[in-house]
Design brief:
Blueprint: H1 15-34, H2 37-53, H3 64-81, H4 83-91, H5 108-114, H6 118-129, H7 134-141, H8 145-162
């Protein structure tokens, strides 16, 4: 796991570097959580505000990416729990077309991922889309390593069943 040096509490984070380095991946992840591009953009913006305000609390125990990703996950989860978001879902249908720069035409896998239970969906998103290692997911979600591996295994099995005939010939 990549370790970062502990930032000097008097330093200001290099926000331009952080946005350039992690922004696109965070936007994709937030979109897959929230299913709405504007809400995902707002969540990423809130994530960077929290990063800026809490930069002095980053201890370097995990990578910058893991720390920022865990903040983004918490922002998305807070939005999903909010009554405003639940009311929004009640009053309009979510767009089904995911946001990707290369505009992937076949979104079957993403649709099946979005149907998973949240605890399975988040480990799949972090492992495959954020390319975090299991130990980084442990740090981001604050769960045990065995919980991460079990959730990954169960999510893969569910995806394999739901994608049978599309991508699996069994």
């Amino acid at each position: 796991m990549e370790q970062c040096s502990v930032p000097n509490k008097d330093d200001i984070p290099d926000m331009e570097r952080l946005i350039n380095q992690y922004g696109d991946n965070l936007l994709r992840m937030c979109y897959l959580y929230l299913h709405d591009l504007q809400l995902a953009e707002d969540a990423v913006q809130d994530t960077y505000i929290k990063v800026y305000k809490n930069w002095d609390t980053f201890k370097g125990e995990s990578s910058e990416k893991t720390w920022i990703t865990s903040i983004a996950i918490n922002v998305c989860k807070s939005r999903l729990r909010s009554s405003w978001y639940k009311n929004l879902l009640f009053h309009r249908e979510l767009k089904q077309e995911p946001y990707y720069e290369d505009n992937i035409k076949d979104d079957t896998v993403l649709n099946e991922i979005s149907k998973l239970k949240p605890k399975y969906r988040e480990v799949i998103l972090l492992f495959y889309y954020q390319e975090l290692k299991v130990k980084e997911i442990v740090a981001a979600l604050n769960i045990t390593e065995s919980a991460v591996t079990v959730r990954l295994s169960r999510a893969r099995e569910q995806l394999k069943k739901s994608l049978k005939g599309w991508y699996f010939d069994e």
